[in-house]
Structure formats: structure tokens, C-alpha cells
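Researcher: I'd like a candidate sequence for this fold, 304 residues long. If you have to choose between options at a position, lean toward the conservative one.
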């Protein structure tokens, strides 16, 4: 997927123009799980609707599998499965019957229904009415529906919203399994801890603009430095030695926290050269939430 200069505006009831997506660039590599992150109101759902031809952009271009959309969307739509907002099924029908209706509509044999129910772990519950499904089961049935056409690209908009921890774990495992089969999974979310566990690559948006893109590892190490915490007998002397290297140093009792150093080895070396020896050295890992807050907080100001 390749998006360049995508823009979408809306008019409010007072005729004020609101920019939902502002010249967005987005690249989703083939294969793996790609997380599309942003705060609520950052333009994620609007972007996904434009990718799927459900909304028309004011400007910019979108290519799926190298094909321009929406101009040639019919040429590639069979390779795409998507869940946008709340999935719709007939409440009084069983999960299996709902999928059979969809299979008939898209020209897929009913044998495929059994395969996708098995794939999402619902084969034994296929006879149950949809209304009796838990929220997590309803979401898994929606994923099964997207798999009927055996798509290469799956697009999930906030798939874990409202789920309990068990449901979140099931959806996460399903997405990871689909990616491991060679499919591309694009998932929008603001639940950072869950994304960090499953995503291979990430795009972060704020106020309709891209603020960062790359692998999860590169995003977490964006500044190429580490935060290191050491415990020493003489924290005042340690502070002087480390600050002399140009690093940011904070002291709390016998604990010294260092930011800006290349790594723990360099911190330990600086201390040892001054005859200060650490009782403990801990690398403080930068998590995705910290990176996300830094990136979105620094984004250009726009209406969202």
C-alpha cells in the first residue's frame, strides 16, 4: 500500500472547515502486521475509508498492489478484506448461516465457511445465534467474514475496542497468525501495549499528518541513545562524572538515571574511570507509549 499527499476536509454545521487528513504519506510493506497509530480524532478511520473507496479524498493518491484506487478499485478489491467500525450480522441467525449468506453473495463455496470458522476458532460455536456471541466472538466472526475471499491484505480498524483481556489476546494471536501465513495486516489502534506485542512496522499519525514511520524497533530507538539507571555508593560524584560527558543526569538517593548515553557500557566505563563502581546497572527500555506521546505531542497543530 502506498499513499501520497492524501487530504480530506469536512464542513461542520456552522460551515467551518475541518481538516481530517492533511497531506498524509503512508507506506505499508507487503507481509507482516503494520500498526496505524494515532489518538482518537487523528484521521485513522477517515484514512482507512479512503483506502477502501468508502470516502473520496480531496487530493492525493492511493495505490493498492500498485493499482490506483478508487479509479481501479474493482481490479483489486477481491484481494482485500476489511473490518471498519462495527461489523453487521443478522442477530437471529447462527454464525455459520451468516457466513453462508456472505459466501453466496461473493460467489464463494460454502466449504470455505467451515475453513474460516476453523481458522478463527469458532467452528464448534458456528451453530450458535450471533446475538449470543460475546464481543470477542463477534469480532472473530467478522475476521472470518473477511477471510472468505482469501485476501492478501486485511484492514482492521480498532479491532480490540471494548474487548476483555482474553478477547484482546485472541484477536492479537489471530492477526499474528494471518501475518505469519504471508498476508499483510493493517491494524489501526490507540491501544499501544497490544500493538507493540504484535506489530512489525508502525506508522504514527497526529492531526491528520504522518509523524513517524518504520519498524517498531527503530521507533523505540529513534534517537539512538539509551536511558540507564545505576545504583552507586557516591551518587554526587557519579553525577559529576556522567554530566561531564554531556549526558543528562538525575539523582534520587543512591540511584542515578542517565539519558543520552550510547549505552550501559559507556556509563559504566565513565564511572569506573572516576573510581565509582555501580552496584546495579539497568537499561530503561523506551516503550511504544513513550514514543507515541513524544511524537504526537510534537506534531504540527491542525484541526482534528
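Model: Candidate sequence:
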Amino acid at each position: 500500500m502506498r499513499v501520497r499527499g492524501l487530504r480530506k476536509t469536512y464542513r461542520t454545521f456552522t460551515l467551518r472547515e475541518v481538516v481530517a487528513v492533511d497531506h498524509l504519506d503512508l507506506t505499508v510493506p507487503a507481509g507482516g502486521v503494520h500498526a496505524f497509530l494515532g489518538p482518537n480524532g487523528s484521521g485513522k478511520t477517515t484514512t482507512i475509508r479512503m483506502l477502501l473507496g468508502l470516502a473520496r479524498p480531496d487530493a492525493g493518491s492511493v495505490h493498492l498492489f500498485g493499482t490506483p484506487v478508487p479509479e481501479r478499485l474493482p481490479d483489486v478489491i477481491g484481494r482485500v478484506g476489511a473490518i471498519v467500525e462495527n461489523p453487521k450480522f443478522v442477530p437471529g441467525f447462527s454464525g455459520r448461516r451468516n457466513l453462508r449468506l456472505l459466501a453466496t453473495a461473493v460467489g464463494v463455496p460454502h466449504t470455505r465457511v467451515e475453513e474460516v470458522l476453523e481458522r478463527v476458532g469458532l467452528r464448534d460455536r458456528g451453530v450458535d445465534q450471533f446475538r449470543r456471541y460475546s464481543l470477542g466472538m463477534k469480532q472473530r466472526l467478522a475476521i472470518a467474514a473477511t477471510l472468505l475471499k482469501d485476501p492478501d491484505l486485511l484492514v482492521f480498524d480498532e479491532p480490540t475496542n471494548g474487548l476483555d483481556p482474553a478477547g484482546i489476546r485472541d484477536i492479537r494471536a489471530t492477526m499474528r497468525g494471518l501475518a505469519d501465513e504471508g498476508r499483510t495486516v493493517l491494524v489501526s489502534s490507540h491501544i499501544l501495549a497490544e500493538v507493540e506485542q504484535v506489530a512489525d512496522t508502525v506508522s504514527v499519525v497526529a492531526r491528520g499528518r504522518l509523524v513517524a514511520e518504520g519498524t517498531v524497533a527503530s521507533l523505540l530507538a529513534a534517537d539512538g541513545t539509551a536511558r540507564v539507571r545505576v545504583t552507586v555508593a557516591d551518587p554526587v560524584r557519579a553525577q559529576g562524572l556522567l554530566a561531564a560527558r554531556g549526558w543528562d543526569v538525575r539523582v534520587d538517593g543512591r540511584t542515578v538515571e542517565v539519558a543520552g548515553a550510547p549505552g550501559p557500557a559507556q556509563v559504566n566505563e565513565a564511572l569506573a574511570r572516576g573510581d565509582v563502581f555501580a552496584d546495579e546497572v539497568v537499561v530503561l527500555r523506551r516503550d511504544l507509549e513513550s514514543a507515541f506521546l513524544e511524537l504526537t505531542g510534537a506534531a504540527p497543530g491542525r484541526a482534528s
